[in-house]
Amino acid sequence: MKIPFSPPYVDDDIINEVVDSLSSGWITSGPKVKALEEEICKITGVSKSVCVNSWTSGAILVLKWFGIKEGDEVIVPAYTYSATALAVLHCGATPVMVDITGDFTIDVKSIEKAITAKTKVIMPVDIAGWPCDYDAINVLVNKELVKRQFIAESDKQDILGRILVISDAAHSIGAMYKGTPAGKLTDLTIFSFHAVKNITTAEGGAICLNLPDSFDNEAEYKIMKLYTLNGQNKDAFTKSQAGGWKYDILFAGLKVNMPDVCAAIGLAQIRKYDILLLKERERVARAYHAFFSKFKQFELPPLEDENRKSCFHLYALRLNRCTEEQRDLIIEEITQKGVAVNVHFIPMPMLTVFKNLGYKIEDYPVAYDNYSREISLPIYPQLTNEQIDYVCEAVLSSYKKVVHD
User: Fold this and answer.
1) Measured between alpha carbons, how far is 41 from 94 in angstroms, rounded to an integer?
2) Cβ neighbours of residue 263 under 8 Å, at least 6 residues apart?
3) How large a percentage of the chain has pLDDT more than 70?
4) Which residues carry out catalysis?
5) How far apart are CA 350 and CA 273, in angstroms?
6) Does the pLDDT at position 61 exceed 90?
7) Helices then strands (H, E): number in the chain?
8) Residue 71: partners with Cβ closer than 8 Å, 6 or more residues away
9) DSSP sequence for 135-155
10) What per-residue confidence (pLDDT) applies to 372?
Protein backbone atom coordinates (compact mmCIF):
# COMPACT_ATOMS: atom_id res chain seq x y z
CA MET A 1 0.00 0.00 0.00
CA LYS A 2 1.29 3.47 -0.96
CA ILE A 3 0.13 6.35 1.22
CA PRO A 4 1.30 9.88 0.35
CA PHE A 5 1.91 12.41 3.09
CA SER A 6 -0.39 15.29 2.13
CA PRO A 7 -2.03 15.34 -1.32
CA PRO A 8 -4.29 18.33 -2.06
CA TYR A 9 -8.04 17.88 -1.81
CA VAL A 10 -9.48 18.44 -5.28
CA ASP A 11 -13.07 17.64 -6.24
CA ASP A 12 -15.47 18.77 -8.99
CA ASP A 13 -16.47 21.90 -7.06
CA ILE A 14 -12.85 23.03 -6.98
CA ILE A 15 -12.27 22.21 -10.65
CA ASN A 16 -15.45 24.05 -11.65
CA GLU A 17 -14.49 27.12 -9.60
CA VAL A 18 -11.06 27.27 -11.26
CA VAL A 19 -12.56 26.74 -14.73
CA ASP A 20 -15.01 29.55 -14.00
CA SER A 21 -12.07 31.83 -13.23
CA LEU A 22 -10.25 30.82 -16.39
CA SER A 23 -13.38 31.21 -18.50
CA SER A 24 -14.09 34.66 -17.10
CA GLY A 25 -11.00 36.10 -18.75
CA TRP A 26 -9.88 37.50 -15.39
CA ILE A 27 -7.24 35.40 -13.63
CA THR A 28 -5.25 37.87 -11.51
CA SER A 29 -6.60 39.59 -8.37
CA GLY A 30 -10.30 40.27 -8.79
CA PRO A 31 -13.73 39.06 -7.68
CA LYS A 32 -12.68 35.61 -6.47
CA VAL A 33 -9.99 37.06 -4.21
CA LYS A 34 -12.61 39.43 -2.77
CA ALA A 35 -15.02 36.51 -2.26
CA LEU A 36 -12.32 34.46 -0.52
CA GLU A 37 -11.50 37.38 1.78
CA GLU A 38 -15.17 37.57 2.74
CA GLU A 39 -15.31 33.83 3.46
CA ILE A 40 -12.22 34.13 5.67
CA CYS A 41 -13.96 36.89 7.61
CA LYS A 42 -16.97 34.61 8.11
CA ILE A 43 -14.92 31.69 9.40
CA THR A 44 -12.81 33.82 11.75
CA GLY A 45 -15.18 36.56 12.84
CA VAL A 46 -12.83 39.39 11.85
CA SER A 47 -14.09 42.39 9.90
CA LYS A 48 -11.33 42.43 7.30
CA SER A 49 -8.82 40.03 5.72
CA VAL A 50 -6.23 40.55 3.00
CA CYS A 51 -5.27 37.71 0.67
CA VAL A 52 -1.59 37.49 -0.32
CA ASN A 53 0.55 35.12 -2.36
CA SER A 54 2.18 33.38 0.63
CA TRP A 55 2.38 33.40 4.42
CA THR A 56 5.91 34.77 4.15
CA SER A 57 4.96 37.77 2.04
CA GLY A 58 2.05 38.45 4.39
CA ALA A 59 4.43 38.49 7.36
CA ILE A 60 6.89 40.80 5.60
CA LEU A 61 4.00 43.08 4.67
CA VAL A 62 2.63 43.45 8.21
CA LEU A 63 6.10 43.90 9.71
CA LYS A 64 6.85 46.67 7.23
CA TRP A 65 3.39 48.16 7.78
CA PHE A 66 4.24 48.36 11.51
CA GLY A 67 7.57 50.02 10.74
CA ILE A 68 9.93 47.17 11.61
CA LYS A 69 13.49 48.01 10.65
CA GLU A 70 17.13 47.37 11.43
CA GLY A 71 17.79 47.43 15.17
CA ASP A 72 14.30 46.18 16.09
CA GLU A 73 13.67 42.80 17.74
CA VAL A 74 10.87 40.34 17.07
CA ILE A 75 10.36 37.45 19.49
CA VAL A 76 9.65 34.08 17.84
CA PRO A 77 9.77 30.44 18.96
CA ALA A 78 12.85 28.43 18.04
CA TYR A 79 10.52 25.59 17.00
CA THR A 80 8.81 26.64 13.77
CA TYR A 81 9.38 26.71 10.03
CA SER A 82 12.15 29.07 8.96
CA ALA A 83 9.76 31.55 7.31
CA THR A 84 8.77 32.90 10.73
CA ALA A 85 12.26 34.26 11.36
CA LEU A 86 13.22 34.86 7.73
CA ALA A 87 10.39 37.39 7.41
CA VAL A 88 11.99 39.30 10.30
CA LEU A 89 15.42 39.17 8.67
CA HIS A 90 13.99 40.44 5.39
CA CYS A 91 12.88 43.59 7.25
CA GLY A 92 16.40 44.08 8.63
CA ALA A 93 15.35 43.25 12.19
CA THR A 94 16.60 40.59 14.60
CA PRO A 95 14.61 37.43 15.40
CA VAL A 96 14.90 36.75 19.13
CA MET A 97 14.29 33.03 19.54
CA VAL A 98 12.84 31.54 22.72
CA ASP A 99 12.07 27.97 23.74
CA ILE A 100 8.73 26.20 23.63
CA THR A 101 6.68 24.08 26.01
CA GLY A 102 5.80 20.39 25.86
CA ASP A 103 2.72 21.05 23.69
CA PHE A 104 4.85 22.68 20.93
CA THR A 105 3.71 26.25 21.70
CA ILE A 106 5.90 29.21 22.64
CA ASP A 107 6.88 29.47 26.32
CA VAL A 108 5.31 32.68 27.65
CA LYS A 109 7.75 32.89 30.58
CA SER A 110 10.61 32.81 28.10
CA ILE A 111 8.93 35.57 26.09
CA GLU A 112 8.79 37.81 29.15
CA LYS A 113 12.49 37.27 29.88
CA ALA A 114 13.37 38.12 26.26
CA ILE A 115 11.56 41.46 26.07
CA THR A 116 13.82 44.52 25.79
CA ALA A 117 13.38 48.16 24.79
CA LYS A 118 14.06 47.00 21.21
CA THR A 119 11.14 44.52 21.16
CA LYS A 120 8.49 45.63 18.72
CA VAL A 121 6.63 42.39 17.90
CA ILE A 122 5.90 38.98 19.39
CA MET A 123 5.03 36.27 16.87
CA PRO A 124 3.72 33.06 18.49
CA VAL A 125 3.17 30.01 16.26
CA ASP A 126 0.28 27.53 16.33
CA ILE A 127 2.22 24.35 15.55
CA ALA A 128 0.13 21.56 13.98
CA GLY A 129 -3.03 23.64 14.39
CA TRP A 130 -2.80 23.84 18.21
CA PRO A 131 -3.34 27.41 19.53
CA CYS A 132 -0.83 29.09 21.82
CA ASP A 133 -1.71 30.46 25.26
CA TYR A 134 -3.06 33.70 23.86
CA ASP A 135 -4.60 35.02 27.06
CA ALA A 136 -1.19 34.93 28.73
CA ILE A 137 0.51 36.56 25.74
CA ASN A 138 -2.08 39.33 25.45
CA VAL A 139 -1.93 40.01 29.18
CA LEU A 140 1.87 40.17 28.99
CA VAL A 141 2.03 42.86 26.28
CA ASN A 142 -0.49 44.97 28.21
CA LYS A 143 1.43 44.91 31.50
CA GLU A 144 2.36 48.44 32.52
CA LEU A 145 6.01 47.55 33.02
CA VAL A 146 6.19 46.01 29.55
CA LYS A 147 4.34 48.92 27.95
CA ARG A 148 6.70 51.43 29.59
CA GLN A 149 9.65 49.66 27.93
CA PHE A 150 8.07 50.01 24.49
CA ILE A 151 9.56 52.78 22.33
CA ALA A 152 7.33 53.82 19.42
CA GLU A 153 9.29 54.65 16.26
CA SER A 154 6.55 54.73 13.61
CA ASP A 155 3.02 56.08 13.26
CA LYS A 156 1.47 52.63 13.70
CA GLN A 157 3.61 51.90 16.75
CA ASP A 158 2.60 55.22 18.26
CA ILE A 159 -1.10 54.45 17.77
CA LEU A 160 -0.76 50.97 19.32
CA GLY A 161 1.48 52.06 22.18
CA ARG A 162 2.73 48.57 22.94
CA ILE A 163 4.28 45.44 21.46
CA LEU A 164 2.31 44.13 18.47
CA VAL A 165 1.17 40.49 18.61
CA ILE A 166 1.06 38.67 15.27
CA SER A 167 -0.22 35.11 15.32
CA ASP A 168 1.65 32.82 12.95
CA ALA A 169 -1.42 30.74 12.23
CA ALA A 170 -0.04 29.08 9.11
CA HIS A 171 -1.37 25.77 10.48
CA SER A 172 -4.45 26.81 12.41
CA ILE A 173 -7.38 28.01 10.33
CA GLY A 174 -10.41 26.49 12.02
CA ALA A 175 -8.75 26.06 15.43
CA MET A 176 -10.50 27.42 18.52
CA TYR A 177 -9.30 29.08 21.72
CA LYS A 178 -11.88 29.55 24.49
CA GLY A 179 -14.65 29.60 21.92
CA THR A 180 -12.92 32.17 19.70
CA PRO A 181 -11.65 31.12 16.26
CA ALA A 182 -8.05 31.47 15.16
CA GLY A 183 -7.83 34.75 13.30
CA LYS A 184 -9.38 36.78 16.09
CA LEU A 185 -7.00 36.00 18.96
CA THR A 186 -4.32 38.66 18.43
CA ASP A 187 -3.83 42.04 16.73
CA LEU A 188 -3.04 40.42 13.40
CA THR A 189 -3.15 36.80 12.25
CA ILE A 190 -1.54 35.32 9.17
CA PHE A 191 -2.80 32.07 7.63
CA SER A 192 -1.04 29.96 5.02
CA PHE A 193 -2.84 28.42 2.05
CA HIS A 194 0.19 26.50 0.79
CA ALA A 195 -0.49 23.24 -1.04
CA VAL A 196 -0.33 21.06 2.09
CA LYS A 197 -2.51 23.25 4.31
CA ASN A 198 -6.08 22.50 5.47
CA ILE A 199 -7.32 25.06 2.94
CA THR A 200 -5.12 25.65 -0.08
CA THR A 201 -4.82 28.09 -2.95
CA ALA A 202 -1.76 26.17 -4.24
CA GLU A 203 0.36 29.03 -2.89
CA GLY A 204 -1.10 31.82 -0.81
CA GLY A 205 -2.06 33.21 2.55
CA ALA A 206 -4.25 35.74 4.30
CA ILE A 207 -3.83 38.48 6.89
CA CYS A 208 -6.69 38.88 9.37
CA LEU A 209 -7.09 42.31 10.95
CA ASN A 210 -8.22 42.41 14.57
CA LEU A 211 -6.57 45.65 15.62
CA PRO A 212 -7.78 47.50 18.75
CA ASP A 213 -10.24 50.40 18.61
CA SER A 214 -7.41 52.93 18.29
CA PHE A 215 -7.14 51.72 14.67
CA ASP A 216 -9.67 51.87 11.86
CA ASN A 217 -9.53 48.29 10.54
CA GLU A 218 -11.27 49.32 7.31
CA ALA A 219 -8.67 52.00 6.65
CA GLU A 220 -5.79 49.64 7.50
CA TYR A 221 -7.29 47.00 5.19
CA LYS A 222 -7.20 49.50 2.32
CA ILE A 223 -3.58 50.38 3.10
CA MET A 224 -2.58 46.71 3.16
CA LYS A 225 -4.37 46.07 -0.13
CA LEU A 226 -2.31 48.87 -1.65
CA TYR A 227 0.77 47.32 -0.05
CA THR A 228 0.15 44.07 -1.96
CA LEU A 229 0.27 45.97 -5.28
CA ASN A 230 3.46 48.04 -5.04
CA GLY A 231 1.61 50.84 -3.25
CA GLN A 232 -0.37 51.50 -6.43
CA ASN A 233 -3.67 53.34 -5.98
CA LYS A 234 -5.50 51.30 -8.65
CA ASP A 235 -5.62 47.53 -9.07
CA ALA A 236 -5.35 45.87 -12.47
CA PHE A 237 -9.12 45.45 -12.82
CA THR A 238 -9.75 49.16 -12.24
CA LYS A 239 -6.96 50.12 -14.63
CA SER A 240 -8.44 47.87 -17.32
CA GLN A 241 -11.70 49.81 -17.44
CA ALA A 242 -12.22 52.43 -20.12
CA GLY A 243 -10.32 55.58 -19.20
CA GLY A 244 -8.86 54.00 -16.06
CA TRP A 245 -5.26 53.80 -17.17
CA LYS A 246 -3.87 56.63 -15.05
CA TYR A 247 -2.48 55.60 -11.66
CA ASP A 248 -0.12 56.70 -8.90
CA ILE A 249 2.35 54.91 -6.59
CA LEU A 250 1.64 56.20 -3.10
CA PHE A 251 4.48 54.45 -1.23
CA ALA A 252 7.09 51.72 -1.70
CA GLY A 253 4.90 48.66 -1.42
CA LEU A 254 5.40 45.02 -2.35
CA LYS A 255 4.04 42.83 -5.16
CA VAL A 256 2.41 40.02 -3.23
CA ASN A 257 -1.23 39.92 -4.32
CA MET A 258 -3.09 36.63 -4.73
CA PRO A 259 -4.41 35.81 -8.25
CA ASP A 260 -8.07 34.92 -8.78
CA VAL A 261 -7.17 31.59 -10.37
CA CYS A 262 -5.52 30.58 -7.08
CA ALA A 263 -8.25 32.07 -4.92
CA ALA A 264 -10.78 29.92 -6.78
CA ILE A 265 -9.26 26.75 -5.28
CA GLY A 266 -9.46 28.10 -1.76
CA LEU A 267 -12.93 29.53 -2.30
CA ALA A 268 -14.36 26.12 -3.20
CA GLN A 269 -12.57 24.49 -0.25
CA ILE A 270 -13.48 27.04 2.43
CA ARG A 271 -17.18 26.76 1.59
CA LYS A 272 -17.12 23.12 2.69
CA TYR A 273 -14.40 23.40 5.31
CA ASP A 274 -16.51 23.19 8.47
CA ILE A 275 -19.04 20.74 7.10
CA LEU A 276 -16.60 18.31 5.47
CA LEU A 277 -12.86 18.94 5.34
CA LEU A 278 -12.31 19.80 9.01
CA LYS A 279 -14.53 16.95 10.21
CA GLU A 280 -12.66 14.44 8.09
CA ARG A 281 -9.29 15.62 9.41
CA GLU A 282 -10.64 15.19 12.94
CA ARG A 283 -11.80 11.68 12.07
CA VAL A 284 -8.26 10.73 11.10
CA ALA A 285 -6.70 12.37 14.18
CA ARG A 286 -9.14 10.65 16.55
CA ALA A 287 -8.44 7.29 14.92
CA TYR A 288 -4.70 7.78 15.46
CA HIS A 289 -5.37 8.79 19.06
CA ALA A 290 -7.45 5.66 19.68
CA PHE A 291 -4.65 3.44 18.39
CA PHE A 292 -1.51 5.03 19.80
CA SER A 293 -3.00 5.70 23.24
CA LYS A 294 -2.77 1.94 23.88
CA PHE A 295 1.03 1.96 23.77
CA LYS A 296 3.51 3.48 26.21
CA GLN A 297 5.99 3.98 23.37
CA PHE A 298 4.12 7.04 22.07
CA GLU A 299 3.33 10.54 23.29
CA LEU A 300 0.15 11.86 21.69
CA PRO A 301 -0.18 15.41 20.35
CA PRO A 302 -2.78 17.69 21.96
CA LEU A 303 -6.09 17.74 20.11
CA GLU A 304 -8.55 19.31 22.54
CA ASP A 305 -8.76 20.48 26.14
CA GLU A 306 -11.04 22.74 28.17
CA ASN A 307 -9.73 25.86 26.38
CA ARG A 308 -8.41 24.81 22.98
CA LYS A 309 -9.32 22.69 20.01
CA SER A 310 -6.93 21.90 17.19
CA CYS A 311 -7.81 22.13 13.51
CA PHE A 312 -5.89 18.87 13.00
CA HIS A 313 -3.42 20.19 10.46
CA LEU A 314 -0.69 17.78 11.53
CA TYR A 315 -0.63 14.67 13.66
CA ALA A 316 2.67 15.27 15.45
CA LEU A 317 3.38 11.97 17.18
CA ARG A 318 6.35 11.78 19.54
CA LEU A 319 8.26 8.59 20.26
CA ASN A 320 9.21 7.78 23.84
CA ARG A 321 12.60 6.33 24.85
CA CYS A 322 13.92 7.19 21.42
CA THR A 323 16.96 9.13 20.24
CA GLU A 324 17.09 11.35 17.17
CA GLU A 325 19.12 8.70 15.36
CA GLN A 326 16.58 6.00 16.21
CA ARG A 327 13.74 8.26 15.07
CA ASP A 328 15.46 8.67 11.70
CA LEU A 329 15.81 4.89 11.36
CA ILE A 330 12.14 4.44 12.24
CA ILE A 331 11.20 6.89 9.50
CA GLU A 332 13.26 4.85 7.02
CA GLU A 333 11.41 1.69 8.07
CA ILE A 334 8.01 3.36 7.75
CA THR A 335 8.93 4.72 4.33
CA GLN A 336 9.93 1.25 3.15
CA LYS A 337 6.41 0.12 4.01
CA GLY A 338 5.01 2.68 1.55
CA VAL A 339 3.92 5.31 4.07
CA ALA A 340 5.19 8.86 3.59
CA VAL A 341 5.81 10.66 6.89
CA ASN A 342 7.53 13.91 7.79
CA VAL A 343 9.10 15.84 10.67
CA HIS A 344 7.76 19.21 11.85
CA PHE A 345 10.09 20.97 12.32
CA ILE A 346 13.85 21.06 12.37
CA PRO A 347 14.32 23.83 14.99
CA MET A 348 15.65 26.99 13.38
CA PRO A 349 18.91 27.07 15.44
CA MET A 350 19.88 23.79 13.72
CA LEU A 351 19.69 25.33 10.24
CA THR A 352 22.81 26.75 8.60
CA VAL A 353 21.48 30.27 8.04
CA PHE A 354 20.69 30.68 11.73
CA LYS A 355 23.76 28.84 13.03
CA ASN A 356 25.83 31.30 11.04
CA LEU A 357 24.05 34.12 12.88
CA GLY A 358 25.06 32.66 16.24
CA TYR A 359 21.96 30.73 17.33
CA LYS A 360 22.69 27.47 19.19
CA ILE A 361 20.27 24.59 19.64
CA GLU A 362 21.70 23.97 23.12
CA ASP A 363 19.84 27.11 24.22
CA TYR A 364 16.47 25.53 23.35
CA PRO A 365 16.33 22.12 25.06
CA VAL A 366 12.56 21.62 24.82
CA ALA A 367 12.55 22.47 21.13
CA TYR A 368 15.30 19.94 20.50
CA ASP A 369 13.61 17.25 22.59
CA ASN A 370 10.33 17.61 20.67
CA TYR A 371 12.10 17.62 17.32
CA SER A 372 14.29 14.61 18.09
CA ARG A 373 11.28 12.38 18.82
CA GLU A 374 8.64 13.76 16.41
CA ILE A 375 7.08 12.07 13.39
CA SER A 376 4.22 13.70 11.47
CA LEU A 377 1.76 11.15 10.14
CA PRO A 378 -0.44 11.51 7.05
CA ILE A 379 -3.66 13.36 7.88
CA TYR A 380 -6.12 14.51 5.21
CA PRO A 381 -9.79 13.96 4.28
CA GLN A 382 -9.15 11.35 1.59
CA LEU A 383 -7.57 8.82 3.99
CA THR A 384 -9.71 5.70 4.34
CA ASN A 385 -10.06 3.77 7.58
CA GLU A 386 -8.11 0.93 5.99
CA GLN A 387 -5.24 3.30 5.17
CA ILE A 388 -5.29 4.70 8.71
CA ASP A 389 -4.99 1.20 10.13
CA TYR A 390 -2.09 0.50 7.79
CA VAL A 391 -0.26 3.68 8.89
CA CYS A 392 -0.74 2.77 12.55
CA GLU A 393 0.64 -0.72 12.14
CA ALA A 394 3.54 0.54 10.01
CA VAL A 395 4.56 3.00 12.73
CA LEU A 396 4.23 0.48 15.55
CA SER A 397 6.11 -2.31 13.80
CA SER A 398 8.86 0.08 12.69
CA TYR A 399 9.30 1.40 16.23
CA LYS A 400 9.56 -2.12 17.62
CA LYS A 401 12.11 -3.09 14.98
CA VAL A 402 14.40 -0.17 15.87
CA VAL A 403 13.84 0.37 19.59
CA HIS A 404 14.12 -2.68 21.77
CA ASP A 405 12.52 -1.70 25.08
Assistant:
1) 32
2) 21, 29, 32, 33, 35, 36, 51, 201, 204
3) 98
4) 197
5) 35
6) yes
7) 16, 13
8) 92, 93, 94, 118
9) HHHHHHHTSHHHHHH----SH
10) 98
